[in-house]
Structure formats: structure tokens, C-alpha cells
Design brief:
Helix content is 33%, strand content 21%. The protein is built from 12 helices and 13 strands. It has helices at 67-76, 88-98, 108-122, 126-129, 156-169, 184-198, 215-228, 244-253, 267-275, 291-305, 316-323, 379-384; strands spanning 4-20, 33-51, 56-60, 136-143, 173-176, 203-206, 233-234, 258-260, 281-284, 308-311, 331-336, 364-366, 390-392.
Amino acid sequence: MSRITEVRVVPFTFEVPDLGLGAHAAMGVSNLQWQKGASLKVMRYAVRLRTDDGLAGEYVTHWVGTHSALGQTNMIAPHLLGRDPEDREGIYDDLKRELRAYDGMGHGPLDIALWDLVGRKYGMSVSTMLGGYRKRLPVYASTHHGQDEPGGLDSPQAFADYAIACADRGFAGFKVHGWHDGNVRREAATLRAVRAAIGDRMEVMYDPGCEIRTHLEALRLGHVCDEIGALWYEDPYRDSGVSMTGSQILRQKIRTPLMVTEHARGPERKAAYAIAGACDLFHIDPEYDLGITGAMKCAHLAEALGIDVQVHAPGPAHRACVSAIRNTHMYELALVGPGMPNLIPPVYACGYSDQEAALGDDGQVPVPTGPGLGVTYDWDFIERHAFDAKTYR
């Protein structure tokens, strides 16, 4: 039996070209813009577990890699010491309780590292451990938000032009993240421009990112989604995506499937949405939903209820989950735009990538097949750019 003897949590930084924060100069959720010649400093963090018999499990965060989540990961990391890494269900349950007063965002990276460790122990990919049967995944382009400064996605026409480029590139779908001001006329014009530009070449989805302020405005845009035949309408309200009643009422008045629960994390909260008739799809994420363990609970719950799920954002753990979920559609490449790179950390020494250029000629990306997550991290890069790393023994 293996026992965890060390947990190392390593925050690090890297630079992303041609992206900036604009006048507000504050990093938030997807509030970036194209800015020629700029260099954006981004923080993510890595987790490495070691056992008394020489095993290791690793994970480097993508979208969950914030200072807020880092604090939670450091809070609960010592709880892994002395545990058998194969006891993932018991560890999941214990860590969930430890973070009950918080949003749980620091839990996922530790759970994912456990899956990586056990997969490496038995020479098996996480996809195989989950029963994955998809080897390649169709991909949709999930855009950066619109910007008011010239460049990037600065107009409805810019979104339409980029949609054409994505269709030509082979993407299966195109998701619009509009402007942060939630201007209904501009949002509606963008959706109509995108559909007119690409016809039926790709699916179109709409995610205001919780920027729409009132029910009537959200309803109006829902009708535009109906008009253009959107595949889904996601997180419209300024409720941060957690108003079950608001979603329930909106869903009754539009035809487009409503996708929420990205911010109602874990199977218990998602079950309440489904039972209340407040959504048509779950949004799940192995980083957000308490790891691969929690994300797959959500996927199986949805399957039992007869509804679909979409896995939020990209990453090797996300690909493994999508490979094993029947009731899902596409893999999200988030966030992309014309000349706008994804904020994925450049830590892969194995060729893995979630940049736009990684899309295959068939419009798909592969599921990693090596042991564990199937990726190799560049720990020299991580340690060279590290700060305030903590080791628990």
C-alpha cells in the first residue's frame, strides 16, 4: 500500500504576448483584450504528490489557477499526508467537508493529481481508468470577450469574421462571449452577424458570462438565440449563474437549451437545478467540480436524468473526462480570438497544447494515452518561474 509523504504546491508566472487588461488593469474572469505589443503576466500553480514507495502524481492548473484557489489548495494539502492515493472516494469526501465554508475551487487540482498518480502506478491512462472510448474529440472555439478598444473582437463584424476563420479551420462550433457591459443591442447584433456569416457550417452558442442585468434583457437575448438556432444559451444573468428560480423562469420562455451550473459546483447543487427544471445541460469541470471524481459524479447524474453535459474549458484532465462521457458534444477551446492566445501555461514538454494551432485537420484533438494524465510537465520551467512554493511533509 502506498502512502502520501509529500505534497508540493508551486505557484509560478509566465508571460502571454499581445494580451492586456485595458484601463481597469485588474485580472478577473475573462476580462482580457487584444493589445498589440503588450505582455500579460499570468499566475498558475502546480501540484506534485509523492509517496513512500517512490510514486508521483502531478497537475498544473489552467482556469482554476488563481490566488483564491491557491489559498484553498494550500489549506487542504496537508490532509493528504499519510493517505493511500487509491482511496480517492474517501479523500474526495473528506476534502469536500474541509472546504464546506468556501467555493471548493482549491480541491480539484489535488484530486486530479491523485488520478495521475494512480494511473502512473498501474501504467494506465486516466481516460482508460474512466472507461474512455473516444480517442479524438471535436472542438469548438470559445471566444475571448468583446473589447471597445480597436483590435481583437471589437465589433459584431469582428466576431463574424473570426467565426468564418474558425469554420474554415475546421472547428465544430463557435461560442460567443460578448461585451462586459451587457449591451443587449450589440449582443444581439453579434449573434445575428455570426450566424449570417457562417450559415449552418458550425454550431453557434452564446455565453454572456453573467453580464445581462435583468430578466427582460436575458429573455430578449434568449429569443435571439431561438432565432439563430443556437445550440445552447449559457449563464445569462448577473446573478453569477446561481439563481435557480431565474433560470427556471427563463427556461420556460425560450426554446434554446439553457446551460448553467458552472458556478453551482458539485453534484448536489447540480441535482437541485435539474430537479427544479432550471436547466437543460450541466456545465461541469474537473478543476471546478472538486476534481475528476466530482466531475464524473456530475456527468453520471446528468446521464441518469436524461440530460446532457458540457465540460468547461480545456486541459488534459478535461480531455480524459470527455473521452468517457456519452452525453456530451464538443471539447471547449477557451479562450481564443484573432491573434489572441489562450492563457494555458507553457509547461508541456510532450507536445500537448490547447492553443488554436493544436486543432487537427479533422477539427479534433487527441485524448492523451500515456500513463496518468498522459502529459509530461516541464518542471525546470515551473521551478525557474516559481514563487512562494510550499512543501508539506
